[in-house]
Amino acid sequence: MKDYIVIGSGIIGALITRTLSKYQVSVLVIDKENDISSHQTIANSAIIHSGHDPKPGSLKARLCVEGNAMYDTLEHELAIPLLRTGAYVVAHNNFEEQMLQELHQRAKQNGVLGTYFLSGDEARKVEPRLSETITKVLSLPSTKVTFPWEVSIHAISNAIKNGAEFKRNAHVISIKKVEDHFVLHLKDGTTLESKHVINAAGVMSDLIARMIEENPEFEIKPRKGEYFVLDRKAVGLFNHVIYPLPTKAGKGVLIVPQTHGNILLGPTSYEISDREDESTSREGMKYIKEHLKALSNQIPFDMIIRNFAGVRATSTYEDFYIQESKTYKGFYHVAGIDSPGLTAAPAIAKYLVEEVIRIDLPMKPDFDPIHQPIPLFHTLCDVQKQIEIQKHPKHGHLVCKCEKVTEQDIINAIHSPTGNDTIKGIKKRARAGAGLCQGGYCESEVLKIIARETKVKPNEVNYYAKNTPILVKETKTK
Amino acid sequence: MKTDLTIVGGGAAGLAAALSAIDPQLNILIIEREPRLGGILNQCIHNGFGLHMFQEELTGPEYANRFIEALKDKHIDILLGTTVIDIQKKTDFEITLTSEANGYQHLTSKAVIIASGCYERTRGAVQIPGERPKGIMPAGSAQRYLNMEGYLVGKRVFILGSGDIGLIMARRMTLEGAQVLGVAELMPYSNGLTRNIVQCLNDFDIPLYLSHTVTDIKGKDILEQITIQQVDDKFEPIPGTEKVFEVDTLLLSIGLIPDVGLFDSLQMKKSPITKSAIVDQTLMTNVEGLFVCGNALHVHDLVDWVSKEGEKAGKTAKAYLLEQKHEEKDLKSIAPGSNIRYVVPHLIDYNHLTEPIQCAFRVTKKMAQGQFKVVQNGEVILLKKAKHIAPAEMENLIIKPEDLKSKDPIEIHLEEIV
Questions:
Q1: In B165-175, which positions are buried (b, 16+ CB within 10 angstroms) versus exposed (e)?
Q2: Could you tell me which residue ranges the FAD dependent oxidoreductase domain spans (chain A) (predicted)?
Q3: How many CB pairs under 8 A join A and B?
Q4: What is the ipTM score, two decimals?
């Protein structure tokens, strides 16, 4: 019996788990997938927004601005990458300049600090690839960029250090309230029990809600966003997040420098019926290229290495829905977390625990907020490299040359407490296969290392989900 | 460590370069990432290699072995399982190496030949829409898994792109018991060698869909089906031409790109078309003492031409190293003219013009018959007729020093003969 079960190990569930692990309670975070953070958290713009866009007075506005500031603390505590890019919102004519003024007012109302205007020419001095047609720019210096699933993985690692647990492939299919606790029935036939449950299931959160109540106050209206990724050699072409003016559908098609040097282009934003549909489309890719013209006509589309799509958990409830169930005490919904959900995530976790649950228990005296991940070899300085390579000769074997990942980096990614034993799980942690050749060279090496380290046969190594082996038939059997 | 000539890559190009650079006065070092020499030839267990070099049909490993045997007892150092991670040009080249056996090592070398081969273009680069399940990979990866590790990656296979590796894998996977349902090619002509179309597709009744591409991919965790569609002359899919295939594997054979990503700190000038170095007829780049050859320079259709280019680089690097004083260069362009996509070398150095220039190039259009024209100052200085000209096959032309009328730039054109 747990005190708390968190359903969903996206960035929301991960940071809630970490926040709960500060208290003297037992916490288990579960995910239906084979890894931490497999959907919305790995497919978004990665921006820590300043808070210029949400409606003043909303929970989105408050938690966005609070969350933005909290990332500075997380950077130190969880050793997550944070790129302090700042952002430019661009206008092209009098009408758009007027809207930019209104946006500026909104930003000030929301408590965004340090904002100022630049003329088109002033902005182009800093970002020379901005479109010539841009006449005015609103600068938002507090905008940052992070590496979202690393935040989740590090948050859960830190929570585990403080006593929490993580369970993957735990797909909840029904929930029953029994006496003073909840029983979660999983797809594999097993059950889990907990006094409190937190529904942080992202695009699945209304389905989870309907397992315990008939008419939840929110329904997920999934919204898809497609993106392009430019190779890391595009680093420096743009150094700010570049936004067009926001519309009702969202913040528009953006240019976003990433923490590893890549540049993200996108997203589209359209409602879809299948919440699991993470496919990209020709139309979506055309839409992105078309809309980028308003921002810049100097984007090297020949540096595209990948396209992907994510599904945002937009809900019918206009704001974030962070409330206790109206049917059962002890069951909490953290739902409808679309943009600025990533920004707000640390503030959402704090808000849930302190203002919704109002946890009234002592903190663990030995709670350690610090997570010290083993750094990737290529991020070390030459002196440290020499020391590490002496200790771990497998750092000498460069497996992925595009992202400079060593065999020891891969071994570390497999064996850490939040490690993973799949090709994509290793890519998420060590970046092997995330570069220009997309694993064409190193995938077979990574596969062999996983097989050796986890003591399975090569044809038992999965691409990502359970039962997704890359190799399907051995041809040289005796 | 110190050496005279460092060859990065121990595949077809690097091995040939090493052999032709041998000289009692020179220390030569080959650096190879894999634990054995031979490069990608090791996974090419089909035959057809060596017709031009040895007038024999060899398998990939046999072909590599001819060179590896020839290197034995020669005064050449070889570092296996070692990756070059950085090269900087100071007075000499300062090279950083890494290996599990020796950790980080630093090496100084007077000249460098890059013979690092190429990598396969990916799904992301050509922006194939759809879901992203497992079961989609470059054909060369499937070849490596099958021929080196002994595993099939799928049982019902479709192949996008008619590049040679895809064609070879269509036959190879069929022979191992997989069912290959078809090959789609975006262009109206095949991108592979004619012999491979005949021997790998026609002989096994595998359909080739020209002017078709993959327009959708379905499968959440595992590939379930793909849709192909015919494209118009602007490569836009034509509605109503959709064909659906239930497959567990989609192999991509959509092009190869020279793999010179690790050498950025050299500030080598690159061609946007070949995505690799701009070289003169000695295969030297704008960086003095730096040569590039083989598929690291431009993608060849036959390994024999890779070896010949490697030989050339080895020879010219040796000459460069043995030269007492390096003369100034007098560089002029060899530009691709009508119907020509690119020409290698990109430049002539008139001050080092002692031997015929071996021009390798690709055309942009398929022609039954045509003539190549070398033009200098508006005057045709060389004419060569050819039959069965295709973008998939590399064309060659030799320009002798006496063909050149002046020290001006030249152009190569292709004219159709109707």
A1: bbbbbbbbbbe
A2: 3-354
A3: 142
A4: 0.95
